[in-house]
Amino acid sequence: MKKSAWLFIITMMMSTMITLSSNNWISMWMGLEINMMSFIPIILNKSNKSSAEAAMIYFLIQSLSSMILMIMVLISMMKYSMSNNMIKLMITSSILMKLGAAPFHIWVPEMMSKISWYKGMLLMTWQKLAPLMMISNIYTSSTIINLSTIWSVIIGSIGGINQSSLRKLMGYSSINHLGWMIAINKSLNLWLMYFIIYSVMNMMICQMFSNMKIYFTNQMSSMNMNNNEKINLSIMMLSMGGLPPFIGFMPKWLVIQNMINSKEIIICVIMVMCSLITLMFYMRVMMYMFMTYNTLIKWNVINYNKLYLMIMTAMNLSLPMIMFMKLI
């Protein structure tokens, strides 16, 4: 990474903090704009045709959503005849567009397929923090949130079924997880905990794929991975899918509990069913790794850090320990 990229990473983090600590729309908007103008040079760090396309997609989507957001804020300040509910609906829609939640999701997988794993990791984790906090602070109608939740979990699960590109698959997985986070947007502690656990798991998977230079599912069969690496990657995948007893199940469990208490049973059932579909396409990726003959390629030998693999395993198997501590 070029030295200048670190300046933009610091600016990107500071701009998110500006949005999180703001108490008015103008400063929130300013933080989002600085964030956008910091992330675009990071995308263009290695200039090629794909990264230029990704930067243009990101710029157009974020500019359009910011424009809608500011127009609605100005209308609400000038007290025009437009109804309050309509203004809130448009503001929420503009923030959902920034997040890449369904039905404004089409740009996320397309952009993911054109950028590197580390940039994709930033897009799927850090870039979602400020808009999620904004949605959490808006007292909006539950209808648009519920519709976006249902669309996100359905599209995020069905969209990943037929994907051979792992970056697109992770993009659809991100949309699915976003649906779970939006569903509990009123409970700050709950979605923040979900976001942190999801971000850590996402970082570990993206780092592993980046180190091994894996971009497509058919590459999994030709990687020279030992059994420890295969088992660790499988555990990470199953944890991302929310399978017990891995740590990825804990936030989903708490969301289900919260939604049952709120009497949102139908949405909860849809979310759980779609979670099973995401598990299916994660297991399909693992099948390439375990069920096919591994071709040994001399120039593709990877000496992966054993300590890192141990940390991954310990983190993902920590849910039974948490449960045991609670029982004590």
Automatic annotation (TrEMBL):
Residues 22-278 form the NADH:quinone oxidoreductase/Mrp antiporter transmembrane domain. InterPro entries: Complex_I_Subunit_2, NADH_UbQ_OxRdtase_chain2, ND/Mrp_TM. It is a multi-pass membrane protein. GO terms for cellular component: mitochondrial inner membrane. Its main location: mitochondrion. One of its GO terms (biological process) is mitochondrial electron transport, NADH to ubiquinone. The keyword Lyase does not apply. The chain crosses the membrane at residues 5-20, 56-77, 144-161, 191-211, 231-253, 265-287, 307-325. Its EC number is 7.1.1.2. The keyword Oxidoreductase does not apply. It is found in: Mitochondrion inner membrane. GO terms for molecular function: NADH dehydrogenase (ubiquinone) activity. It catalyses: a ubiquinone + NADH + 5 H(+)(in) = a ubiquinol + NAD(+) + 4 H(+)(out). Keywords: Electron transport, Membrane, Mitochondrion, Mitochondrion inner membrane, NAD, Respiratory chain, Translocase, Transmembrane, Transmembrane helix, Transport, Ubiquinone. Belongs to the complex I subunit 2 family. Core subunit of the mitochondrial membrane respiratory chain NADH dehydrogenase (Complex I) which catalyzes electron transfer from NADH through the respiratory chain, using ubiquinone as an electron acceptor. Essential for the catalytic activity and assembly of complex I. Core subunit of the mitochondrial membrane respiratory chain NADH dehydrogenase (Complex I) that is believed to belong to the minimal assembly required for catalysis. Complex I functions in the transfer of electrons from NADH to the respiratory chain. The immediate electron acceptor for the enzyme is believed to be ubiquinone. This is NADH-ubiquinone oxidoreductase chain 2. It comes from Dolycoris baccarum (Sloe bug). The gene is nad2.
